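Lab notebook, bench 4. Still working through the backlog of constructs that have no structural model yet. Next entry is a single chain of 120 residues. Request: give me the structure tokens for it.
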Amino acid sequence: MSKPEAYPGLASSAYHAIDLNQLKSKSNSLQLPILGATFSIPKLLNKSNTLGTSTSSTSVLNNGDISFEQNNEFGHLNVTLGASSIFGSWHHQGKDYRLTTDKSGSWLVELPSGHMIQDS
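Model written out:
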């Protein structure tokens, strides 16, 4: 599997494939491919909710994509989900990640500490 074109020059260990088939299930959850991080895909639209240690805000965009932001024990996730794509960011324990989709697939990309990515 090739790496996403948007993030050249990172070590191979920075790229984690995301299985988008999980979004088609009725579980309403998004499990990221590392640390067992799981986020609930909210069902309530254009609402802000607080449940225990988790908070979320959700909206449906004009094109039908779902955009949501959520904080829980796995950190802060801000993501937009399309029919076959995912884009966004995740912050967990001082590390930053990007969620992206291109022709090679969908990815969770671990950014370097300084966010400086050098061309290879």
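Notes after review: The longest strand covers residues 95-102. The mean pLDDT is 81. Flag for follow-up if needed.
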